[in-house]
Design brief:
By secondary structure, the chain is an alpha/beta fold. The protein has a single domain, classed as Class I glutamine amidotransferase (GATase) domain (Rossmann fold), CATH 3.40.50. Helices cover 26% and strands 22% of the residues. The strands form 2 sheets. A 9-stranded mixed beta sheet has the order 2-1-3-4-11-10-9-6-7. Strands 5-8 form a two-stranded antiparallel sheet. The longest helix is centred in the N-terminal third of the chain and has 11 residues. The radius of gyration is 18 Å and the shape is globular.
């Protein structure tokens, strides 16, 4: 059986591509890291892959707001062929394939209009802005999976720990109509929670103050999934700050990090 092929974009300040590639390799896929210039020059075709990934980082230095420049580049810049990258993405999704964005990649998907995309026309319906704390947040959080989440990345998951590292992670919806549609369609697939597992706006459990305590979104198809926390940074139990305590309490605990489950899920789905 051929391996699932996962394409990971890099360049212009993206800096989490190696972790993303490691996640897919550990999950059993072939992962390839490609500079965005190769995509726009038509040297690499996204259609040769089943998964397209937008990793975290600081694209264009976040100078005009996190991932705004990158999102505009994706949406409007013509490729060497004259096609728009956005049109290529639409074809990619029409072919039944999947897109993942983490942190800066999530911001780009939101600002391109691919998330939450309740209207289906890729208009921007939300944004991500400065954390309520007014500073960069580098901490571990606990998140809860919406049991009605549409993305196969989250199959069988309920709660998991994961690190965040962002300065602009506060999700704000365009208006009440969009917010209601997100809730009605269960697009709010991940929430920050407290120790009891209840959705929370309390800092630092919610590290940024996002509306709906949202840590991640899907589009209505479930093929586009984005989240602010970094599952690719929790591939081993030993990544966790409390791994020693966890192992003492449960000597037989899996040495896989909880973040790896997301990548195993999508590979299993595509197989």
């Amino acid at each position: 059986m051929k391996k699932i092929k996962s394409l990971i974009l890099t360049g212009y300040g993206i800096n989490c591509e190696e972790e993303m590639a490691a996640a897919y390799e550990l999950a059993g896929a072939d992962a390839r890291i490609v500079h965005l210039s190769d995509i726009f020059a038509d040297r690499i075709a996204i259609h040769d892959y089943q998964i397209l990934n937008f990793p975290g980082g600081f694209s264009f230095g976040d100078d005009l707001g996190s991932a705004k420049v990158l999102g505009n580049k994706f949406k409007f810049k013509p490729m060497a062929s004259g096609k728009r990258f956005m049109d290529e993405l639409q074809q990619f999704l029409s072919d039944g394939k999947y897109i993942l964005g983490v942190c800066n990649g999530f911001q780009a998907l939101v600002k391109m209009g691919l998330l939450p995309n309740t209207g289906g026309n890729s208009d921007q319906e939300a944004t991500l802005t400065h954390n309520d704390s007014g500073k960069f947040e580098d901490r571990w959080v606990r998140i809860r999976v919406n049991e009605k989440a549409r993305t196969p990345y989250l199959n069988g998951l309920d709660f998991f720990d994961v690190p965040v590292r962002h300065g602009e992670g506060k999700l704000i919806f365009k208006d009440e109509e969009i917010r209601t549609a997100v809730l009605k369609q269960n697009l709010n697939c991940l929430e920050y929670v407290d120790k009891q597992g209840d959705s929370t706006a309390e800092y630092p459990l919610n590290p940024n103050g996002s509306e709906l305590n949202c840590a991640g979104l899907t589009d209505p198809s479930g093929q586009v999934f984005g989240l602010m926390p970094h599952p690719e940074a929790y591939l081993s139990l030993y990544n966790h700050p409390d791994w020693g305590k966890k192992k003492r309490k449960n000597p037989d605990i899996s040495e896989e990090g909880q973040g790896l489950a997301l990548f195993k899920n999508i590979i299993e789905k595509l197989k």
